[in-house]
Design goal:
This protein is mainly alpha-helical. The protein is 81% helix and 0% strand. The chain is built from seven helices and no strands. Helix 1 runs antiparallel to helix 4, helix 1 runs antiparallel to helix 7 (101-133) and helix 5 (67-91) packs antiparallel against helix 7. The chain is elongated and about 55 Å long. The two termini are 25 Å apart.
Amino acid sequence: MIQRIQSLYMLLLVLINIVLIIVINVDSSNSLIEPYFRYFKIYFTNYFFLEILSILYFINILLFKYSKIQLNLLRFIVILLVFGIIILFIQIPILDSLKNLVFLYFIISLFLIFMTLKSIKKDLAIIKSSTRLR
């Protein structure tokens, strides 16, 4: 399970989300996160956006035997992240949002998810080629 590269990508995403959850919840004075998470903090805290994504990433790691379910779950997560980026662009002007830490989080998450999708598709191609030889 963990020796597969896509599991490592997903574990990295879980760790990033856990660190963000801790930083957002521990900083009660809002001095650290206020400049970066100002408009998006409501979604992170009230709607449990990071917690839900962390659970979905972890479930995706455990579904290593079911590649097609993994692919569908990752596509759903990509849709959630794209909606998050759209909400970010609606709330903050585009030039300001490109400098925002939340935008960097979304870009890193999307990059790691696309790398995971690529790895899973490569594994599926290897499995399909091996079944042709039988």
